[in-house]
Each structure stands twice: as structure tokens, then as C-alpha cells.
Specification:
Elements: E1 2-7, H1 9-17, H2 19-33, E2 40-41, H3 43-55, H4 69-83, E3 91-92, H5 93-111, E4 116-121, H6 125-136
Antiparallel strand pairs: 1-4, 2-3
Helix pairs in contact: 1-5, 1-6, 2-5, 3-4
The protein binds calcium ion (2 copies).
One calcium ion binds at residues 34, 36, 38, 40-42, 45.
């Protein structure tokens, strides 16, 4: 499921700074992706995550870009190698956590203080950041 949410950099950074909430979300997502439960994410297991990262990719004006199927495989493989720090062909929980944090910070930096509309997957990290913001502002 996809939904449209308003997001700014502070929302994402606050989520990352909340070590407990962030670690919990990372572990839960990792377990969801690790379909054979061997504690490692291989390329085909990571594909779903990489696809959700592509959805939030945006140009300079903050517009969400549609995926380009022709270039997708190449892009996903290069994203995967970014996660796979030791290049052993699999992403460990430590690699996944480190890289996810880095990407969230990069996205937050890109957003700055001006909120933008983003299309988010229901189980994505950014969606959880938004949900966390809603629940903490009550
Ligand atoms: Ca696995
Ligand atoms: Ca690795």
C-alpha cells in the first residue's frame, strides 16, 4: 500500500535520534525482508527495500520521480553494493542498520526545513517516522 504524507527533515532526524524506536523499526524491517531467516539479506530479499527507496528519490524541486524500469536493475545493484559494505554478497543487520541510518540522514538533509509531499509505502521507515510524529504530538 502507498500513501501520501507530508514530511520534513526534522521528523526524520527525530526518528533516527530515538535509538530505541529506530533500532526496533530496523530490526522489524530486516526480519520482514529476510524471508529465509538466515540473518542475511541477499539481493533478491533486498529488492523490495531497494524498490521502496527508489520511490522516495526526488529531483531538485522535491517532485517524486516515477521509476524507470529500463534502468532499475542497474540502480538496484548499485544500491545493494552500497549496503553490502564488505562485498560478501549479503547484507548483515549491522550493514543494514548503518546504511539505513546514513540514507535517512541524507534524505533529511535534502528535505531541510521545507515540508514536502512524499509517496510512502506503509511499511517503510519514513512512514514510521511520520506515524511516530503523529503519536508523539498528541
Ligand atoms: Ca536471508
Ligand atoms: Ca556484507
Amino acid at each position: 500500500m502507498l500513501s501520501t504524507e507530508i514530511l520534513d527533515g526534522a521528523t526524520i532526524l527525530n526518528f533516527i535520534k530515538d535509538e530505541e524506536a529506530f533500532t526496533f523499526a530496523v530490526r522489524r524491517r530486516f526480519a520482514e525482508l529476510d524471508t529465509d531467516n538466515d540473518g542475511l539479506l541477499r539481493y533478491d530479499e533486498m529488492l523490495k527495500e531497494l524498490q521502496s527507496l527508489r520511490v522516495i528519490e526526488s529531483d531538485d524541486t522535491g517532485t517524486v520521480l516515477k521509476n524507470d524500469p529500463a534502468k532499475d536493475d542497474e540502480v538496484y545493484r548499485s544500491l545493494f553494493s552500497q549496503f553490502d559494505h564488505d562485498s560478501d554478497g549479503a547484507v548483515s543487520l549491522a550493514e543494514y542498520t548503518a546504511e539505513t541510518k546514513k540514507m535517512m540522514v541524507a534524505i533529511a538533509d535534502g528535505l531541510g526545513f521545507s515540508p514536502v509531499q512524499m509517496i510512502l509505502e506503509d511499511d517503510s521507515f519514513l512512514k514510521r517516522a511520520v506515524e511516530r510524529k503523529h503519536s508523539s504530538t498528541v
